[in-house]
Structure formats: structure tokens, C-alpha cells
């Protein structure tokens, strides 16, 4: 059974960076293969991993809805959609990437979504780790309530707005009755000492801080030069912090 890791948080707090660095560590130390799912409509995970994304599930779904009868002779719609989805899957050495892309447009997408969901669940059985980079609303995970999430990383920066977004996501998970084994807060761009007001808000949420990631000049440099975070130096502060966290969850 695959270990399921989900990353969520307010936009701009470094959620996708944490997802990419988690993939980086697991790619180096295992277990592999990894299925990475970019479920954030902003779709930045591929860029941080140094991968060019040309088509998404959203693109494929929209094209199909515009011309649902354009199915090759002798092939039913189910198999046709599965074929299209397999073409969108980006395969790398230690991980594959599936980008969800845009949300549904007007009209009923029930048939398409059911086929894609069934196929993605079957596909996921081939992986040792499934990592999902979510939007703040947890829309992608809310559609997969039967699947257990082993590790949920709730990412914030050192700001109360980011932390309050974490609290709302945490409450939403309970409302959706999602099966989550472990939940923890990751503080990105963290100072050496967290502010008392910040720690008081953490106490109200009732979740542990599982990692603090210090400000890392390498991240800004790599972003400006569009370099993959997979190439960050081993001693980069953000790499060291995420490596320690990832190693701890695979130690047991």
C-alpha cells in the first residue's frame, strides 16, 4: 500500500516548495516510485521540479466535453479517456507527475470525472508514495474520502494570516471526515525564534509544528533563474529542514 502524503496551505506560504523538496528527498532515499499530483489550479509543481507541463487533466477534460463523440472507432469512451490520461502523465526516473489543471467549466462532468477518478485510483496502486500538492480548499482530497492520508503537511509562513488558513483547512478536514493519520504544521521562512503570538495561535489549532524551514536565499536565486529545486545544494537550509522531516516519517 502506498504512503499518501498531502501538502496544503495558503497560497504564497511555500506549499509547493515543500512538496517539491519532499519529492526531492524521497527520490534520493526512497521508497520509489512516487506519484506526484499537482492539484493546485496554479499548477506550479512541475516548474519547481524542472519539468515543462504542456497539458493537464483540465485541458483534456475540456477538450473531451467540447467533442465527446470524437472517439476512435472500436474504442469506448472509458478506454478513450484512460488513454488520454495516460498520455498526460509525465514520467521521470524516480517519480511521475500528474497535473490536474483548471476546474470544470459549465455542464455536467460527472461521467468524465468518475472515469478519471477510477483510473487515477488504479494507477496509484503502482506507486510506493503518492504526494499531492493541494489548493487551500482541499478540493482534490475531498473527492477521495475512501483513501487514507498518512501524512498531512499544513504549510504556513511566520504570519498569523497563513496560520489562520491552516486552522480553517484543519477544521475543513474534520468537516469532510477525511481519514488523516498524522497532521503537522510546517513553518516556512521561519525566524530563529517564533513570536509568542504565533505560538499562541498554534496552541489554539492544537497541532504540532513538525518542521521549521529557515529563510533560504538559494530558493529566491533558483526561482529567478527558473532552476529546478531538485538541483539545490545538499547543505541548503530548506533542503536540510525538509530532509530531516521526510527521514523521520519513513523511519518507522
Structural account:
There is one protein chain. This protein is an alpha/beta fold and 252 residues long. The chain has one domain (3-249): P-loop containing nucleotide triphosphate hydrolases (Rossmann fold, 3-Layer(aba) Sandwich). Helices cover 43% and strands 20% of the residues. It is built from 10 helices and 8 strands. The protein has helices at 15-29, 45-48, 57-66, 77-88, 110-124, 139-142, 160-176, 196-205, 217-224, 237-249; strands at residues 3-9, 34-38, 90-91, 95-99, 129-133, 149-157, 180-190, 209-214. Strands 3-4-2-5-1-6-7-8 form an 8-stranded mixed beta sheet. Helix 1 (15-29) packs across helix 10 (237-249), helix 4 (77-88) packs across helix 5 (110-124) and helix 7 (160-176) packs parallel to helix 8 (196-205). The longest helix has 17 residues, at 160-176. The radius of gyration is 19 Å and the shape is globular. The protein starts with a strand and ends with a helix. The model has no long low-confidence stretch (mean pLDDT 89).
Condensed summary:
With 252 residues, the chain is of the alpha/beta class. The chain contains 10 helices and 8 strands.
What integer value in Å does the Rg equal?
19 Å
The largest pleated sheet is described as: 8 strands, mixed
Give the amount of beta strand, in percent: 15-25%
Question: Helices and strands, in N-to-C order?
Answer: EHEHHHEEHEHEHEHEHH
Amino acid at each position: 500500500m502506498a504512503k499518501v502524503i498531502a501538502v496544503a496551505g495558503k497560497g504564497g506560504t511555500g506549499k509547493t516548495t515543500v512538496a517539491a523538496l519532499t519529492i526531492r528527498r524521497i527520490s534520493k532515499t526512497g521508497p520509489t516510485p512516487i506519484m506526484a499530483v499537482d492539484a493546485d489550479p496554479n499548477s506550479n509543481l512541475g516548474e519547481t521540479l524542472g519539468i515543462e507541463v504542456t497539458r493537464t487533466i483540465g485541458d483534456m477534460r475540456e477538450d473531451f466535453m467540447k467533442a465527446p463523440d470524437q472517439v476512435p472507432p472500436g474504442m469506448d469512451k472509458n478506454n478513450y479517456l484512460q488513454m488520454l490520461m495516460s498520455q498526460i502523465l509525465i514520467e521521470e526516473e524516480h517519480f511521475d507527475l500528474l497535473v490536474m489543471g483548471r476546474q470544470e467549466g459549465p455542464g455536467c462532468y460527472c461521467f468524465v470525472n468518475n472515469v478519471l477518478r477510477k483510473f487515477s485510483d488504479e494507477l496509484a496502486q503502482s506507486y510506493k508514495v503518492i504526494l499531492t500538492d493541494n489548493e487551500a480548499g482541499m478540493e482534490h482530497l475531498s473527492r477521495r474520502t475512501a483513501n487514507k492520508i498518512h501524512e498531512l503537511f499544513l504549510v504556513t509562513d511566520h504570519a498569523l494570516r497563513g496560520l489562520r488558513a491552516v486552522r480553517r483547512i484543519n477544521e475543513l478536514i474534520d468537516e469532510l471526515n477525511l481519514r488523516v493519520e498524522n497532521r503537522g504544521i510546517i513553518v516556512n521562512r521561519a525566524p530563529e525564534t517564533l513570536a509568542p503570538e504565533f505560538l499562541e495561535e498554534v496552541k489554539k489549532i492544537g497541532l504540532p509544528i513538525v518542521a521549521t524551514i529557515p529563510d533560504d536565499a538559494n530558493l529566491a536565486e533558483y526561482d529567478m533563474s527558473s532552476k529546478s529545486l531538485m538541483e539545490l545544494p545538499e547543505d541548503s537550509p530548506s533542503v536540510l529542514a525538509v530532509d530531516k522531516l521526510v527521514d523521520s516519517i519513513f523511519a518507522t
